[in-house]
Design goal:
It is built from two helices and 23 strands. Residues about 1-15 and about 15-25 have low confidence and may be disordered. The strands form two sheets. It has a twelve-stranded antiparallel barrel with strand order 12-13-14-15-16-17-18-19-20-21-22-23. Strands 1, 2, 3, 4, 5, 6, 7, 8, 9, 10 and 11 form an eleven-stranded antiparallel beta sheet that branches. The chain folds into two domains: about 1-130, no CATH class; about 135-350, Beta Barrel (Outer membrane phospholipase (ompla), Chain C), CATH 2.40.230. The longest helix has 22 residues, at about 1-25. It is mainly β.
Length: about 350
């Protein structure tokens, strides 16, 4: 007998709260400590309530600290994750009433999982849109040039041109790179290198993914007519913060080399790579370290390293890149040093 009066009483209590809210001509929020805020409730999502006030602008409240609230206009509201209904809402610690839907719930105000105004984007739609935006691939481009020369007492020319195109989303990245280097000193060629490569990585979770890369390279100074290098394997993000990223790769590789003395070398092998970037203000330090042993002969391997520091210039599109690269071959072609170091300074142009 007593139970049959509970629902009507709750309904009358909530309805009286609605009449009071409407008479105030403003939405009202009562906090657990007894404080009352008046304004316009715009959104409830992710355990937070947003209310616009005339005296303090938009205020964000933790829903756990809200004892009750009421809207004087019809809104879309979902209680306990159930389908949303449309109507003025009165929510207290004893129940939730959606007047337009004549719906009464035993849930407390803190169990209103979503609320949004008519014509506004629902929290579910917002999440879907944000996810779709993250999945969109966007192109970015970079060109690099470094030219130094001298004429008169001595003749010297050093020119490097490079380009990079990146297609990226939040879960994958494709990089295409081209480099051409040429240098002469007193008529003697000291650099003649061309490089073209692609690198693709795809992450099936926040930190785990796979990668594939391939490249073609020619370096006449190192007696290398052609090197074709490819790798496929797994990658993991060990550090992923706003300032620093560290990615570790491990996979299988395949290398083919045609040398200037008409000899050839080809072999499958392994690929170990570390990729690190660290951001300080607007500048950025990039490092890559790779170790590539071969299966054909365990004593034949290559180690590649490059570190560069990118410094933005006054114009937002321009950067200065300073760095060095090292390459070690434990069994190099005849007449070629095992260890080779290159220092460089380049002017970068970036755009999207």
């Amino acid at each position: 007998m007593l139970g049959s009066w509970v629902m009507p009483c709750r309904f009358l209590l909530l309805l009286s709260g609605l009449v009071l809210a409407v008479s105030l001509a403003a939405d009202q929020v009562e906090l657990a400590d007894g404080s009352i805020l008046k304004g316009r409730i715009t959104t409830i999502e992710a355990g937070k309530l947003w209310i616009e006030t005339a005296y303090a602008g938009s205020i964000t409240l933790e829903l756990a600290h809200v004892k009750s609230f009421a809207t004087d206009e019809a809104v879309n509201a979902s209680v306990g994750g159930r389908p949303a209904e449309f109507g003025p809402v009165v929510a207290t610690d004893t129940g939730v009433l959606l007047v337009g839907a004549s719906s009464v719930s035993d849930a407390a105000a803190t169990e209103v999982t979503a609320l949004w105004r008519e014509g506004a984007e629902s929290p579910g739609e917002k999440i879907a849109r944000e996810r779709a935006e993250l999945l969109k691939r966007k192109w970015s481009f970079e060109t690099a040039v470094a030219i130094t020369g001298r004429t008169g007492t001595t003749e010297r020319l050093n020119a490097t041109f490079g380009g990079k195109a990146t297609l990226a989303s939040d879960h994958d990245r494709l990089v295409v790179a081209l480099i051409a280097e040429r240098a002469e000193d007193k008529g003697l060629e000291t650099a003649n290198r061309q490089f073209a490569g692609t690198d693709y990585s795809w992450f099936y979770s926040a930190n785990h993914g796979w990668y594939a890369r391939t490249s073609l390279e020619s370096d006449q100074i190192k007696a290398l007519d052609l090197r074709s290098a490819s790798a496929l394997g797994l990658t993991r993000k060990m550090i992923q913060t706003e300032r620093e990223n560290l990615e570790v790769r491990f996979g299988a590789s395949y290398t083919y080399e045609a040398l200037s003395d008409n000899t050839e070398f080809e072999s499958p092998g392994l690929d170990f790579t570390l990729i690190n970037s660290f951001t300080h203000g607007d500048s950025k330090l990039n490092t890559i370290l790779a170790y590539i042993p071969t299966f054909r002969d365990s004593t034949i391997y290559r180690v590649r390293h490059e570190s560069n520091y990118e410094i933005p210039l006054t114009a937002s599109l321009w950067k200065l890149k300073i760095g060095l690269s090292n390459e070690y071959q434990n069994v190099p072609p005849e007449g070629v040093a095992r260890f080779d170091t290159t220092y460089f300074t380049s002017l970068l142009l970036n755009w999207k």
